[in-house]
Structure formats: C-alpha cells, structure tokens
Specification:
This protein is of the alpha+beta class. The chain contains 3 helices and 9 strands. It has one domain: Beta-grasp domain (Ubiquitin-like (UB roll), Roll), CATH 3.10.20.30.
C-alpha cells in the first residue's frame, strides 16, 4: 500500500524531506507510524519513548485528526507532528 506522509519539525531531518511516500503493508495509523520508523530509523527518537508513541505526537488523516487505531485507506495522506520540546522560561 502507498501512503503519502507529511512531516514537521525535526522529523524533516530524519526523512530528508517534508513529504515522503511510504510503501507498507497497510493497517492502522499506529502501523503506518511503525512503518515510517522502519523506513526512517532516525524518526524513532522524535516519535517514541521506549516502545510507546509519545502522547504529544499528533497525526491527521486527510486533514482530520484521528487516533492510532483508525485504519488507513489506500491512497490516504497522513500528517505527523512530533512532540515539541519546551524551552526554559526566563
């Protein structure tokens, strides 16, 4: 299955581009994120704490925010926004 994934923030350095095309077996949003990390291993540090997706990671499917158990249809577009690291307040 082919899915277009748009990434933001530090994920761009992990994928080398703002938008990538992912070939994967298909399944849920969680499966798509796992396939993204398989294809771009440097993305893992921005998305996961251990084996759990960080709660602050935001994913949308064709522009609609969704949860990780949503099935991704053929030809869909995902957007992934990783956790944002907070800075020190002065």
């Amino acid at each position: 299955m082919e899915t277009t994934i748009t990434v933001y923030g530090p994920l761009r350095s992990a994928t080398g581009a703002k938008t990538v095309t992912l070939e994967w077996a298909g399944g849920t949003v969680a499966d798509a994120i796992a396939a993204l990390v398989d294809a771009y291993p440097r993305a893992e540090q921005y998305l996961y704490d251990g084996d759990q997706l960080r709660p602050s990671v935001r994913v949308s499917l064709d522009g609609e925010r969704i949860d990780l158990v949503t099935r991704v249809p053929e030809g869909a577009s995902l957007t992934v926004v990783p956790a944002v690291q907070g800075g020190a307040r002065e």
